[in-house]
Amino acid sequence: xxxxxxxxxxxxxxxxxxxxxxxxxxxxxxxxxxxxxxxxxxxxxxxxxxxxxxxxxxxxxxxxxxxxxxxxxxxxxxxxxxxxxxxxxxxxxxxxxxxxxxxxxxxxxxxxxx
Length: 114
Description:
Blueprint: E1 6-9, H1 15-23, E2 28-30, H2 41-50, E3 53-57, H3 60-73, E4 80-82, H4 88-101, H5 104-107, E5 111-113
Parallel strand pairs: 1-2, 1-3, 3-4, 4-5
Helix pairs in contact: 1-4
């Protein structure tokens, strides 16, 4: 059992969010670092899942659709966290609370809003 969820940031998330979360000792991989810039949302979620990372995004509509598709087809993902486009410090604070409160198992296959 993995206690803390690892995070993968969608390309629409500011790099500063990753920097702040890493300063709080959280495991974060960005789209740029993974060399996944420009890939579709479907590919981003599949990559995050293959890396056992929940994905952080501002893209609520598309990721709600993807989550529903995964559920309907019996697929599983490592979690989706949707956040509004606030400043990086606010996003990092909200995401940090979730990642320090819920285990990786509790985030697994969930669509969460922060």
